[in-house]
Structures are given as C-alpha cells and as structure tokens.
Amino acid sequence: MSAAFALVLRPDSSFDVIEWRSTGDTLNTLYREIDCTSIAVVDLSSEVSMWLDDEGMFKNSPVNIPALTLYAISAPVHQSYHGTAVFTGGPDARGDTTGLTLDQCRALLKLAGINAPTVPAPRAN
Q1: Stronger pLDDT, 125 or 82, i.e. the higher one
Q2: DSSP assignment of 66-119, as one string?
Q3: What would the pLDDT profile of 60-80 be if each residue is shown by its tens digit?
Q4: Which residues of 82-117 are buried (b: 16+ CB within 10 A; e: fewer)?
Q5: What is the pLDDT of residue 59?
Q6: What pLDDT, on a 0 to 100 scale, did the predictor assign at position 6?
Q7: Could you give the angle at which helices 65-74 and 102-111 cross, rounded to 10 degrees?
Q8: Which of 3, 30, 49, 117 has a 20 to 30 Å separation from 22 between CA atoms?
Q9: How far apart are CA 31 and CA 8, in angstroms?
C-alpha cells in the first residue's frame, strides 16, 4: 500500500500536507485539522473531496480564497467557503475516504495559485 496524504489549506494560503489513513478515526483527523465540531464535505470530482467547517460562515471565519478557487474549477461558485479546508481523495468502493498522492497535492496547490516548493531528489554519497 502506498503512502496517502491530505492537503490542509488555510485562508491565508498556508498549508500542510499530512499523512492520511483511509481507515480508522479519519473523522477526528478532520475535526482536529479544521478545528471545528461540524464538518461538511463537497465533492469536487470523484477523485477529490473538500472538507470544511459547516458553520465557518456563521463563526466569522475568514473566506478561504484558495479553496474557492479550487471549487470554481469544478462548478460555478454559489457560496463562499470559510476557514480551513482539507482536501482528500474521494470515497473508495467501501465508502472510505482515500488519500491523495504528493503529486495531486502539488497540483491542487498549483491550481490554487500557491507555489509549493519541490523536494529535490535525494543525493547519493
């Protein structure tokens, strides 16, 4: 099984890439990363899901422009998204949320207009 990741994208364009285990206590991982108690999911495609604080708008959380930019690629924007967003893969055949590859995380960042540093190839001594 290959490593899987999730992209944590904040309104100020800062981000983290975290390890994602598609089984286990994934909901608590989302609650912790988004820092909320009520989560909503928006499927951007069958391969990418965006998780957000369902009450972010009502808590006066800042609008997440990078998340809105990624949403706008898949559908017309009909509302704003507030607070931290977590991007994962879509559900697998059992309904478990899959992770993303590092290349997918980089592609999402690039689409959002965020320059992500690349990790150089390891050097051999």
Answers
A1: 82
A2: HHHHHHHHHS---S--BS-EEEE--B-TTSPBP-B-HHHHHHHHHHTT--PPPP
A3: 899 999 999 999 998 888 889
A4: bbbbbbbbeeeeeeebbbbeeebbbebbeebeeebe
A5: 87
A6: 95
A7: 100
A8: 117
A9: 12
